[in-house]
Design brief:
single chain; alpha/beta; QueA-like; Thrombin, subunit H; 2 domains; 9-stranded mixed beta sheet; 6-stranded antiparallel β-barrel; 6 helices
């Protein structure tokens, strides 16, 4: 299948540049897979589409202040460093702009020389491997001089960084938010509890690859980025019990979906674990654990669009997206939501 099959036209003004004043005021497009029907509603009504015994699986990762603005130590040229993930011995994988100022051997300085980054190598895909040095703990330094990174399609400054975090974010490590969870509020959680819908959490630290379109001509030629995850035995027990009782596993976001499908087996059971996943889901994939999917609207030609197309069929998804464009839904990270059941 060609990558161009996952393209669609999106007016630029529909790319949401800021969050709504109230998280749960977002619109919700409900797609029923078997019937092929669409319903327009509000996110606050989400509990009405779930049933007693269903279980929501949510990603409790937290975006950390990974964006650093600094300069070259010797030449003084300005640089921007985006920390992606820790390696070993104080080394990190990172992106740097402009790349010509981050050649191996270059030292980059941030803040009042509180943090120094020595560029060690350049990866085949252009990332930098840097060695970080500071007198204070890195977490302390980042909280002082780092910024929460926003997706490149958001041009407007975010005055409340917490609005790019879910209300249940706990474990720091992502460079992007699991955006399907941004719509939840205590009011929605209360309504879910009244309907006897359960909640369980896992962690997947979202990487920068989530923003990148697939550039290869064919879908199968793309190499999926890997991301760290963790799923506890306690959460697994709830998931397996829900399946046994006939309840639905509702994945909140594509990140939760990838963890569940990574650890699931062909009998519909799941195991606990942690590690890296590079699971690449596109049409033809057979889902083992996930029964329903709550998600936002994704970029053209993205692996996320391919994942939701695998869940509901490419034709249904592109039909739903065309309807969302006609109805002037808000797209991407700060945009509206979609429930696929």
């Amino acid at each position: 299948m060609k990558t161009e099959a996952f393209d669609y036209d999106l007016p630029v003004e529909l790319i949401a540049q800021e969050p709504l004043a109230q998280r749960d005021a977002s619109r919700l497009l409900v797609l029923r897979r078997k019937e092929g029907t669409l319903e327009h509603t509000c996110f606050r009504q989400l509990p009405l589409y779930l049933e007693r015994g269903d279980l929501l699986v949510m990603n409790d990762t937290r975006v950390f202040p990974a964006r650093l603005l600094g300069r070259q130590d010797r030449k003084g040229g300005s640089v921007e460093l985006l920390l992606l993930r820790p390696l070993e011995d104080g080394k990190w994988e990172a992106l740097c702009k402009p790349g010509k100022r981050a050649k191996p051997g270059e030292v980059l300085v941030f803040g009042d020389a509180e943090l120094r980054a020595e560029v060690l190598t350049v990866t085949p895909t252009g990332e930098r491997i840097v060695s970080l040095h500071s007198e204070k703990p890195l977490e302390t330094i980042l909280s002082s001089i780092g910024q929460v990174p926003l997706p490149p399609y958001i041009k407007k400054e975010l005055y409340e960084p917490e609005r790019y975090q879910t209300v249940y974010a706990r474990h720091s490590g992502s460079v992007a938010a699991p955006t399907a969870g941004l719509h939840f509020t205590e009011r929605v959680f209360s309504d879910l509890q009244q309907r006897d819908v359960g909640l369980v959490f896992l962690t997947l630290h979202v990487g920068v690859g989530t923003f990148r379109p697939v550039k290869e001509e064919y879908v199968t030629q793309h190499r999926m980025h890997s991301e760290w995850f963790s799923l506890s035995p306690e959460a697994v027990e709830q998931i397996n019990r829900t399946k046994e009782k006939g309840g639905r596993i509702v994945s909140v976001g594509t990140t939760s979906c990838r963890v569940l499908e990574t650890l699931g087996d062909n009998k519909g059971r799941i195991r606990s674990g942690e590690g890296e996943t590079d699971l690449y889901i596109y049409p033809g994939y057979r889902f083992k654990i996930v029964d329903a999917l709550l998600t936002n609207f994704h970029l053209p030609r993205s692996t996320l669009l391919m994942l939701v197309s695998a869940f509901a069929s490419r034709e249904l998804i592109l039909h739903a997206y065309a309807e969302a464009v006609r109805e002037r839904y808000r797209f991407f990270s700060f945009g509206d939501a979609m429930l696929i059941i």
